[in-house]
Structure formats: C-alpha cells, structure tokens
Design goal:
CATH architecture of one domain: 3-Layer(aba) Sandwich
Strand order of the largest sheet: 3-2-1-4-5-6-11
Shape: globular
CATH superfamily of one domain: NAD(P)-binding Rossmann-like Domain
CATH class of one domain: Alpha Beta
Largest sheet: 7 strands, parallel
Radius of gyration: 18 Å
CATH topology of one domain: Rossmann fold
Number of strands: 13
Length: 316
C-alpha cells in the first residue's frame, strides 16, 4: 500500500483520482483550498482520506501534507483559458508558482514520483494534426503559458534534483463532477446541463472547431500507470483518445442521448481558443501501456446519466 497525495483533490479530475485510489485500497491524502473544488466530491470517501485544507500558492504549512507521501498527483490549477485572459496574474500564481511550490515540497519530502497535470493548450493552433510531444510549444493564452511553465519546472527538478516527474498533457477532459456552474466550465458539461434544463447551449464560433474529448476515467488510468511506469520518468506524454469531434457533432450526439432536438446559439469566438485539437497517443501506449478504454459516446452516456442524478448545485 502506497501513500498518494492529490493536490486539487476536491476538483473534477482530482476527485476522480481520489475515488479510484480509495477503491484500490491505497492511503490517500487530499490537499485543496476549495476555491474551485467541492467538498461534495469527496463526501463518499471523506472518512477514508486525510484532508489538508491548504493553498498551493502559500508554501508555509504545506510540508505536513507531503511528509511520507510516495506519489504526488499535482492537479491543483485554475483550468480556464477565458479566466486567464481576464486575469493572467492569478492564473500564473496558481498554475506556475503553485506548481513550483508543490515541486519544492515533493523534493524536500523525497517523494518517489510527481505526476503533473499538463495541458494540450501548450501546442497552440498549429495546423499540424495530430499533436505529438516533439512539436514546439506555442501557447496562445496566459493559461497555456502557465501550464507550460509548470512543465519546464518539472523538467528542471528532474534534471537538477533527481525528483522523478511525469507530465501528462490532458486533451479536453469531461465526465461526472465537472462543475457546470461557471462560464469557465468545460463545454460538454455546459451543453449537457443546458439540454437537460431545456435551454439552448452556446457555441463560440461556428461549431466546426474540434477537440479530442477524453472521458475522465481514461485520465485516471493514465495517472496511476504513470506513477510506476519505469520508462516514463522525465517524459511529457499526451493523454487523450486519438479521435476528434467538432462541437456541432458533439451537440448532435448529446441531443440523441438525451432525446431532444435543441439548436445552439452561435456567438463570436473567444480570444485564446484554438481551432482544432487531436492527440497522437503513441507515446502513452509505449511508455504507459495506455489505451483509452472508454469511448467518447460511452463517456457522454455515463456523464449524462450522472448529471440527471445530480442536479446542478453551485454550493461548496
């Protein structure tokens, strides 16, 4: 039995990691300041975890959460391009400085390995598809810059201090517990809640922009594989499905699943948004033995079912 520390563990992806680790019988710690995460996400396992209500941007007092940890899953972030365009300083504080603080604590606690939640946004809007890890970074938003900065810190901490790190570049993750109560939420959660409530969802642009939407259970699997994969240390690895859907196609699938026929409202594109995203997952398969086990359509069905059972609640 190993000890896992999940930073941002009350958030969407973080809580999915926590629930799976508890299911596997591991020792689990959660570090979260609940600025974007929700206590309700941890409710099913709250008696089985250690909870540290701390902020990664304030390094004083963090050490207790890291002492004795074997693995650190660094999920703490402000994951929004539009939010970063509006407020680049806070995005940098949390995503870059916060990650540096976590790396320092992990180094000092001599953890075995740190897994960093990186972002496909670092590729920018290069016309080359699919995106592979050897491509140069071309961030188009403060969010992308801050996440790339975290990658660079991970690389340096591996090279200089010998702290094993693995950077997983996530591609448009969706699934249960993704918070739709904010204009900065993931597009599929906003689509689903709009359709379930009988509202017309908003699409920025003409809906032909595409994404490699990836169900959250696939990401959980990749993270846990990355903790122990012998050849993954020091690497940057795409985590996705290797398939793409346009926003118009995604909405059509959701209409069919929910049994409605709702047309979207098209508005002007947002600054910092990229046009197309598709991952090459060859390296994930080679180094982690990873293959996306939950398809896009099946992931949407599971997500819709969860939202039907959990009406939107913006309370903490």
């Amino acid at each position: 039995m190993a000890t896992y520390l999940v930073t941002g563990g009350a958030g969407f992806i973080g809580s999915a990691l926590v629930l799976e680790l508890v299911r596997r019988g591991e020792r689990v710690r959660v570090l979260d300041n609940f600025s974007t995460g929700h206590r309700r996400n941890l409710a099913p396992v709250i008696s089985q975890i250690e909870l540290f209500e701390l902020d990664v941007t304030s390094p004083n007092g963090l050490s207790g959460a890291f002492e004795g940890a074997d693995f650190v899953l660094q999920e703490a972030a402000l994951p929004s391009v539009p939010r970063s365009v509006k407020d680049p300083q806070t995005s940098n504080l949390v995503n870059a400085q916060g990650t540096l603080n976590v790396l320092v604590q992990a180094r000092d606690a001599r953890v075995r390995r740190l897994i960093y939640a990186a972002s496909s946004s670092v590729y920018g809007d290069s016309p080359t598809l699919p995106k592979h890890e050897g491509m140069p970074a071309n961030p188009l938003s403060p969010y992308a810059v801050s996440k790339f900065c975290g990658e660079m810190y991970c690389k340096v901490f591996t090279q200089i201090y010998g702290l094993e790190t693995v950077c997983l570049r996530y591609f448009n993750i969706f699934g249960p517990r993704q918070d739709p109560g904010s204009p900065y939420s993931g597009v599929l959660s906003l689509f689903i809640t709009a359709l379930l409530e009988g509202r017309r969802p908003t699409i920025y642009g003409n809906g032909t922009n595409s994404r490699d939407f990836t169900y959250v259970d696939n990401v959980v699997d990749a993270n846990l594989r990355a903790c122990t994969a012998a050849e993954a240390a020091g690497k940057v690895i795409n985590i996705a499905t290797g398939q793409q859907q346009t926003l118009n196609q995604s909405l059509a699938v959701l209409n069919a699943i929910i049994g409605v026929n709702v047309e979207p409202v098209y508005v002007s594109p947002r600054m910092g948004d990229i046009q197309h995203s598709l991952a090459d997952t060859t390296l994930a398969s080679k180094l982690l033995g990873y293959e996306a086990s939950v398809s896009f359509d099946e992931g949407l069905r599971r997500t819709v079912e969860w939202y039907r059972d959990h009406p939107v609640d913006t309370g903490r």
